[in-house]
Amino acid sequence: MSDTPLDTHDMDAGLIYRLFTGAIAPRPIAWVSTTSAAGHVNLAPFSFFNVASVKPPVLVFSPLITADGRTKDTLANLREVGECVVHIGGEALAEPLNATSASLAPHADEFDHAGLTKVALGDLKVPRIAEAPVAFGCRLRDIISFGDQPMAGSLVLAEVVLIHADSSVWDGRHVSVDALRPIGRMAGSDYARSTDLFALERPK
Known about the structure:
This protein has 5 helices and 11 strands. The chain is α+β, with helices and mostly antiparallel strands. Strand 8 and strand 9 form a beta hairpin. The model has no long low-confidence stretch (mean pLDDT 96).
């Protein structure tokens, strides 16, 4: 094993990506629906995702510019409409979630492509996935861009204003991990289940 630090300036983006996704894992998956000003709905998963704040409630996810230089429709829609719905799918929805990562033609409907149902979430313009047990309806707080080159990210700060939590997974106080069966992204094509847990008491 080498103790020589790796200088990121000497590494190409693909190599850094492989190291990030292999070592920073498992990663929760934000399944994000947005809509354009013209009404075209988009749905895409992002595994660069987590909680940024609780009060105010803010989620954070980061779409990357593709290796061939294309910006995600999610970002364009957020800049036009300023709303999104972040879903937590769970293992039961792993196949349709994966299906929505496909590169479809412009204005193609990922909901239809994956066999999912659109339903309203309060007064938001963006629909939620009816089949998803948890959905966070958000309004855009900020987008922080890290550049315009391939593989550059944009950090989306989305403030949660409405929540759908199905009674099958949420009893009003706790989320049932057994019912939700959350999944995470690993490297490559791999996903992780949350079926092998262990507990450690937090030090006082």
